[in-house]
Structure formats: C-alpha cells, structure tokens
Amino acid sequence: MKQYLFLLKSLFFVSTVLLILAVFSFRPAPNLANCNSKQISAKIINVYAEGDDYLVFELQGIRGKFYIHKIENNSLSAVKAQDLLLDQEVTIVYPTYWTIYDPFSSTRPIFKMTYQHEIIYVET
Questions:
Q1: Is 21 within a domain?
Q2: DSSP label at residue 27
Q3: Residue 58 DSSP one-character state
C-alpha cells in the first residue's frame, strides 16, 4: 500500500509541475501600457531581417538580441535600419518578463526605439 501511495503522490507532483509550466508557457508578451519595462542605450553592432516578419538588432555590450515584429507594417526596413542605425547609439525600451520558452531573456521585443531624440519605432 505504501508503494501505491508514493506513486500517487509522485504522479500528483509531476502533473502539478507540468500544469504550472503549461500555464506560463502560453503567457503572451505584455504591451507597453501595462508592464514593467527597462530602457537601455547602446551602440548597434548588427542589424538583419529574420524571415519576413522580424528585424533583429544586436547591441554592443548587451547579451542577447532585440527584435521588432512585423516590419512590413512599419516604415523601418532592414536596409533602411542598416544604413541609418548601424554603429549608432540608440535608446531601446523593452519589457521585463519571463517565459518558459526563453528563461534567460536572450531575445527581447522592442517597444520603443529612439535615435538622436527622434522616435524610430513605437509598438502599436
């Protein structure tokens, strides 16, 4: 009887952990109006398009990558971003949140990007 009780407790524990992970994994990225966000200033060392939907930025001295989603809807294209922003200092506002898919926050969405006090991108 003790073996079955141990098995039942173990099964309950594992299913509870899996349920919690499932809940956190489907959590969407917050929007700018209702989340904690950070602002950083750094020099852009690399800009490239990832597929048709993403514009990815790598910053000097900052671990990870930052991205803008749906670049087709914005006036900022990959070529324009490379010409304008490569090797330039920009200010980026991004959300601080945790997700099971990226537990170390190595990829972050950009809410707002400014260059020389001019707004380049704002998430709508």
A1: no
A2: P
A3: E
| Inside any domain, residue 17 | no
Cα separation, 86 vs 90, whole angstroms: 10
SS3 28: coil
Give mean pLDDT in consecutive 10-residue pieces for the chain, a chain of 124 residues: 81 88 66 73 92 88 88 69 89 80 79 90 81
Q: What is the CATH number of the domain that holds 112?
A: 2.40.50.140
* Alpha-carbon torsion (5, 10, 11, 16), positive or negative: positive
| Residue 38 domain boundaries | 29-122
Total domains in the chain come to 1
Say which residues have a Cβ less than 8 Å from residue 35's Cβ, sequence separation at least 6. 95, 96, 97
> Is 6 domain-assigned?
no
Indicate whether 46 belongs to any domain: yes
pLDDT of residue 16: 92
E strands along 36-110, which residues? 37-50, 54-59, 65-69, 89-95, 107-109
